[in-house]
Amino acid sequence: MAGSRISRRHFGAWTAGAVLASPLAGLAQGTFPQPGRPIRILVGLAAGGSLDGQARSVARRLSEIAGTQAVVENKPGASMMLSASEVVRAQPDGYTLLYAPSSLFAQNPHTLSSVPYDPFKDFTPITVAAKGPLVLTVHQSLNVKDAKELIAWAKAHPGQLNFASFGTGTSSHIYAMAFAKAAGIEVTHVPYKGTAEAARDLLEGRVQAYFDAAPTAIQNAATGRIRMVGVASPKRMPASPEVPTFTEQGIPGMDLTSWIAFVGPPKMPPELVARLNALLTQALNAPDVKDFYYRGAWEASPSTPAELGNEIRVAYDRWGQMIKQIGFEKQ
């Protein structure tokens, strides 16, 4: 009998230790996130950009809601794969998250010869954060009002239309080549090392066209030096509803909306995912956060984990098809 009591006591101590050691320990005791333990949000681009600003806006609200600090850490480099690799290797305890655009999951595997992650197996989907399109912008010297007029100009001046991108294999490059193929025009690709350089040279008239992120496109169009002629989205931008979509202009296949999402390391417990989804959804629905996205021409769009998983699959397939159609070879 004594031996039996000792066995039960040892068993109870072992199970308690196992619970405390597990990633769900805080959650099981109703204390996730644990007070004083920060939630790290990794961003694969440098501080000061739109992606970084969005992450910090959400982090401020998340800190208030969760009762512990949410800290944004910038890990730029290698097409955002440095930040992704760190999250893949992290413990699935909810304290390390990745804030990343759809290109990380849907484009990198199709455009880069070496990608250190599987977009379907190496991340746990938590929620979509926001959705927003790329916008085709042109220098005012072309004197075109929409995408159809741009196509007419390019056909009248074969080989003279220069398209900037923020790097070979990026969404701005792929969209430019897809647009050229759909329109039946010849363009010259001019790659830059980042978004700022490409946007600057478009403003200066050194290049004539550029698929830019909506926030920068809207800001630069306000100078009068460039014009927005088409939105790569199924619907118009709420922040600039005067700009028509490509579908409205009779140009097919240019309606793939970009999105940004929160994911975690692989094998996160479902209960923990649900808890994080609830916290992030509340943060994303906060009026100040929604307004921050809106002012940047994005729309806060929290989702279920399953919906994000489906978004990853759809984007992966659609981008893969687009990249194959333009004949892009992995770099």
Automatic annotation (TrEMBL):
It comes from the Bacteria. SUPFAM superfamilies: Periplasmic binding protein-like II. InterPro entries: BUG, Bug_dom1. It holds the Pfam family TctC. Belongs to the UPF0065 (bug) family. This is Tripartite tricarboxylate transporter substrate binding protein. It comes from Ramlibacter cellulosilyticus. The lineage of its organism: Bacteria, Pseudomonadati, Pseudomonadota, Betaproteobacteria, Burkholderiales.
